[in-house]
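Dear colleagues,

As part of the handover before I leave the project, I'm documenting each prediction I ran so the next person doesn't have to rerun anything. This entry is a single chain, and its sequence is reproduced below.
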Amino acid sequence: MKYDIELNSAAHYPVKDIVELSPMIEQAGFDAFWKGESNSTDPLVLLSAIAARTHKLKLGTAIYHIFGRSAITLGIQAATLQDLSGGRLLLGLGVANKTIAAWHNGVFDRPLRRAREYIEIVRKTAAGERVEYEGEIYNTGKRFQLSWMPAHPGFPIYLAGLGPQMTKLVGKVSDGVFINMATPGTIREIAKRVREGAVEAGRDPNALEIIAKVRCSLNADRTIARSKLKQVLTFYNIADHYKDMLIASGFEPEVLRIQEAFKSGGFKAASQCMTDEYMDKLPVIPGTSIKEIKERLQPFIEAGATRLIVPYVPVTEPVIGDARQFVEAWGNG
């Protein structure tokens, strides 16, 4: 089982401090470090710095949004980081949503086709092949090819997926699925659809990674450990796509109660509706020890996850100090 870490959730970690912490993350036994993209620090810039400070730690984007840059550009970036790191890149992509597409002057439409074409272009570009792609959505023009032959032309590309159509596509075109904010039961359902998609495309369903995120906080006082996770969960209960997935997972009364509170009283009112009982049914762990956290990760492994990302949510200041304590405890646990 591969356990990874992400330092991105519910806090801004100064990038210099994360880079300085990265050798300790590697020594603690984490297989990969992941960084997501929204309006926070850039994943590949940060991962490049971490690559220079580590030797074995894999470097993942969880996730990069396809509207943020052209597929050719991402292919160039991926090939560069692959050479810099000695082939440690794990590229996670997602189609995002209407809001994020608009940030980049894009239009959120035909997500399945966009994802398929984008991945094809990235793969060709990063492999050093000549790219003259003419798709239904993307057209790269003529005669593009990297000026050098990459030393590590192949790397896994994962695709974030929740719904039936996207998760089927994952199995057909990518190396695995990213699953965020999913219970073990939902992970089991998504893994089944991903593997069905692989079979339909004539691919080996067992070769695909099932990657799940389970957010954790660590504090001897469980009330403190719950505090920031409550904010994170409130956001997901009012967010597009995720609220629908949580309702489909059997939490309709809880989701609707939080949404009504948000409409009438804003985020603070919604957060007050996030009960401990509801939190304990969701993929978050407000742990009082590393032993407890690792034990509570087991149901996600049993559900079919082949790689677990632990986004650490700090509960004390400075946040990098809190994260350092978590990393040290994980390595000693």
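The chain has a mean pLDDT of 96. The chain has two domains: 2-220+283-332, 221-282.

All the best with the project,
I.
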